[in-house]
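Hello, quick one for you while I still have it in my head. My current little project is about how a certain protein chain folds up. You're getting the sequence in one-letter code plus the fold written as tokens. Would you mind checking whether the tokens look sensible for this chain? Here's the protein in full, and shout if anything looks odd to you:
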Amino acid sequence: MRCSLCGLDFKRGDIMSSCENCFVKKGDCDMLRCPNCGFENPGEPQLFKMIKRWRNWNGIK
């Protein structure tokens, strides 16, 4: 994933928890906080995940 504010490439495991002080249901919003700048990026839509899996399965880059 790439932060849309600072441009840092990071993995889902590197994210800072943004749910600790949130008033929305904890863990249900799919927002990912950048470990560099703290900007909350929306998670990857399911359709994009499915397309990536299909492309990998078919050997398309």
Remarks:
- The mean pLDDT is 78.
